[in-house]
Every structure is written in C-alpha cells, then in structure tokens.
C-alpha cells in the first residue's frame, strides 16, 4: 500500500500494491505531461568558456539581472551529428560550482516572486483551502483498519489503526496512531513511503523516504504495541513487499549499495529479489532471484492468499510488457520457474484460486481483458522451465470498448474498474466472467479502491473530480450496494464551479478529450486566465481528482483544463503506442490542438493561456514552448526531462528508452533532436514567461535537466518575459513533499501566472 501524496496532486495508481519501474514524473499528476520539438546545435551558444548573462527581463518595478552562467567547450558526436553541450557542468549536482549557481538562481527568483502583489493573498488562500480533514481508504487486515489521515496542515499524513467495522463517525475517537512521520524531521521532509500490513494485521512493513529521494529504507512495526522491531532493510527502490505465508518475513527488491557520492545520480541496474527473515540482519537475507545477464530486469513480488505461490512480475524498462515467474512455496527446494515469457504483453497478477492464477492483460486486447491460467500440471513437471502452454489459458472477461484499468477478486465477485473517455465506470462480474451489474457512482469522475482479500465482505472506494473532494464509500461485496462512509468538508463552494468534457481534433484528425473546469458564470469572451495541464506518456491515465491547489486557481478566477493526450493510457495500449518513440510528436500535436481549441472557442486567448506539466509532462511543456512560443502567455515546466540525448545516463533514466528511444540508437537520434527542449531553444526568440521548477534531491529526473534548460533559456530569451528557475531544497520528484512546501510552491506558481497573464 502506498498512501503518499504527490507533487502534482494526481490520484494514486489503482493498484498501489504493484510497483512498476518509475516513470520520469512521477508522482502526480502524479500527478504529469509531455511534449517536444526541432533543431539542435544552433540552439545553444558554442565554444564560450567565459560567463555570460541573458538579456535583462523587465518586471513592473525593475529589470531582472540573471546570474551569469559559465559555458564550456564540450561537444559530442551522435552517429555523425556534432552537438554542443555548453552547460554540461551543471549535471554535477554535487559540485560547489553548481551549488553556487543554484543559490544565485534561487535568490533572483525569490526576489521576483516576493514582489508579486498576489503572492501573499494567494498563499493565505491556499493555506485556507488546504486546511481540511482528509482520510485515506481503509485497508482491513485481521480485526483492524489501517488508514492515513491529515487534520489539514500537517506536513505529512499520519498512519492510524482502528477497530474494523466501526462507523466513520467513530474514527476520531477509536483511532490509534501507528506511525507519525511528522516526528521524523523538523521540516517534514522525511516521509512515510509504502506500507503493507501482514495478513493477520499484527505487523506492518513500512518504508521511509528521506528528502524526496526514491531510495527507501524498510522497517517493521508491531501494530499492537506500536514498537519497531530491529529489522532494517536498505537500498530498496521501485519495490513493494510481500509477506511470507506465516508473516515471519517478506520479499522485496533492491539494488546494490551505490558508490559514495553517486546515491542520487548513479545508474540503477541489476535489481535483485530477496527474502528477509524477521529478526535477522539484512546481510543474511536470501537471494531469491536475480538476472545479472539481464541488468535491466526488475522484479515485483506477490504471495497468493492461499499461501501456495510466490508470483514474480518481471519488468524491463517502463514499457508495459512483463513476464511472470512462479515459485511453489509448499516445496522448500522449488526453483523459480517461468510461466509467461516473451515480453509480448502486460500481465498483472490479480488473484489465485487453488492452482488457477488470474491476470489482467492486454494480450490481443489493447483495452485489456482478464485471463486465467491453471499451473498445477506445469509445476508437476520438474523439468518445466518454459511458459505454460498457451492453449490451456482461459479468457474470463473479454475486451470491451472501455479501457480496463484494474481488477479485484472479492469473494466470488470480480470488481472491474474501467475508463470510459477518462471517466470511471465499475462493473461486477462473476468469477467465471458473467456480467452482473454496474456499481452506482456518485457522479462523473474518478473512482479508485475496491481492494481487499478474497474473503472480504466489504470493500471501499474513493470518488473525486475537480470540484468534488474525495469521499469514501463502503461497498457490500455480495450485493454491490454502496453507502457514503466519509465525506470531507472543504472551505470551497464546489457548487459555484462546473466541469465539462469536450473533444478537439488533433493535427492528424485524432479526437482528443479535454476536461474544462471553471466558474459557472464565466463567459467565452477570451478574457479568462486559463491553465492547461497534460502528461501524455508511459501509459499513464489522467483522471479527475480534487486538489486544493486547483481550487485556489479556480477561486482566483482561473479556468483549469486537462487534456488526455496520446501516449497516456486512457484508451488502452494502442493510444499509448501512438505517442511513443518515433510517434512522440503526436503527443505535442495533441497538446497544441488542445490549446488552440481553448483559444478558438473563446475560453481564453494566447496571452492569457498558461501550460503546465511535470516530469514527462515537463518535457511536454518544454517541447511545445519551443515549437510554438507564440501560443502561450506563460509556461510551468516541472521536474522535466529536458535533455533527450543524455537522460538515459542517470539513475533510472535508461528505463525510459522504451518510451522515448535513446541517442544510442541511430534510428532515433534525429527524432530526439527534433523535440528535445534543451536543443531547440533558439537565441533571439521571444519565449513566454517561464518558471522552471525542480528539486535538488530529485533522483528520478535529475535536476541537471532543469538546470541546463533554464541556463539555455535565459541565454536565448530576446524579450522582457521572465525566465526563472525555482529549485526546492530537501525535496525530490514529488512524493512525500510536505504540505508547507506544497503551499509555498503553489503560491509562487499561481502568483507568477497572475502577474504574467494580464
């Protein structure tokens, strides 16, 4: 389970127990967005070894004097194409020179932001809107619920337990603090990462994230006493845990301890699956499976509820294609065996009934289906080191016109979560795949949850959209009937705002959905300050969710639009693949078409239109602002992948090559150069007002991307529009960011937009 917040306030993945390779973004919307553009060498000043500064930009009070950024004479040869990299030195995020540059840039940026008249009232409004009680979905194990809760302005949500089956109005009275991350650091930058209770609810494995890094340290806490055991497991990343059948240990994945000084930049390869036995040091952990001959393979463990099998989902990079390995836990000497091989599709383990395993897959079904595989005969053959004969696989739920996002087997009922034009739809099936009925939802929006063990009699789901705070509903598993269990009260009049879904036509005629949220009395007179957000990558679906930050933007008179671009997962694997690698320009065309729709329909005009995206979405913003600088009044690229020629050389960046292609591939280099934001900045161009944001401890998309882009942008800018960079300290890619830092950041972002969209 992972109940952490995200930088972009995006709804959590629907299967928090499944850990996939990290996409560059991330935690958004995890939130996330993506876009890109053309040329190369001429975009950057060449062969200068002395310092230089960009043209001073003007505010209403005084010109901005940007820090001087030194350039170096560095070039690389990419398959016969010579490309300069004059800001290469900014990749060394640990150097004294880079630290001095960060300090100088932050000083200039903060001086600009502090003078904005809207900043203080905006921060006050954000603090008011953030100050509401919010509770995470309860997870039942044994006779207790586990759930997170934040009273409002606490930097980190607290993990509680409470007796199962109590009414929601008894939570405050009956709850017991299990883990309070706010006590782990004074500034709130040490966060609770993933957590998972044992099946009997007596123990909790939980991970700690320090300063925003993706590295996790695992601990075990006694849920009855609230005391930690002596167990400490380090150097885990991109991994959850799976408890052993008798809860005397857990399976987890880790990397080798990094070289000192390279913890935040070194390449992450050769993930290994281990078994940790409680009460023993990590040095005695048992290696369960590794493939040093396949350094890009990673492993996600699950133990079936019937305690018979260890299921290992084997991923390679971020492309949603997996293999499945199995170990018979009833035989101590049983080897790890393949049951699905070839990386030909995505296979997600759902549940096991005796020797039959259920999987969610897009094999021969771009919008996914459910299959069942009986492994009994396969495992009875001691020499079977190949996959299970596919002629024995059974189709349980076939593909439909909607996109099947998640599946849970609860009792004899399958709960299937679909997306229909990026909006949630929940369907119940029998275990044999016969449709029963639809679960009634409170409205149009996002429903997530429906988790639990197969013997559960109840399950919970959360419902939200852009103007509806997440409410928790309890479902009778047998009947599918639901009741409101908990609804937060927010200091925001949600009835004043409306959300409509529209569709625009992209450059090649593709129909692209946009969700537009605004005050119900706003007019289509081109006067509205509008913020367009998107992601467009890694098969990630953007679905509606409530955010106090978005509420503040709406309260200030703004319009908020979210486009569901190709590259995402809203319409299945074909939609995703149509925005990958050599087709990446489709994503940017979709985003540009969405912006033009907002202008052509009179919702806004170019000088009042801003764009924002994070991680892959930061790339999106960087790409389109270089392709169409005339189209936008302001740009907010966050933690973006800005150097498409070198992204794969840092941390987990190599895993994104399946999505983007890499400069190591000759057939990809020209495409990457055509949209790489860093390589398409052209001196003498007037770029929109831009506030780049990143963090000094981001080890997903290393901050050198944003550093180099900001330096090049300041050098290229030809007009008075500000080009600033805001670098957060003691923070990473977004997960675990404390509430106080979120409020400060959004106050800066929104006041920057208000100032520059006039």
TrEMBL record:
Peptidase S9 prolyl oligopeptidase catalytic domain: residues covered: 545-757
Enzyme Commission number(s): 3.4.21.26
Keywords annotated in UniProt: Hydrolase, Protease, Serine protease
Residue numbers spanned by region Disordered: 1-24
GO biological process: proteolysis
Domain Peptidase S9A N-terminal residue range list: 67-485
One GO MF term attached to the UniProt entry: oligopeptidase activity
Cited InterPro entries: AB_hydrolase_fold, Pept_S9A_N, Peptidase_S9_cat, Peptidase_S9A, Prolyl_oligopep/macrocyclase
GO-annotated cellular components: cytosol
Signal peptide bounds: none
Reactions it catalyzes: Hydrolysis of Pro-|-Xaa >> Ala-|-Xaa in oligopeptides
Source organism superkingdom: Bacteria
Family indicated by similarity: Belongs to the peptidase S9A family.
Protein name: prolyl oligopeptidase
Organism: Rhodopirellula sallentina SM41
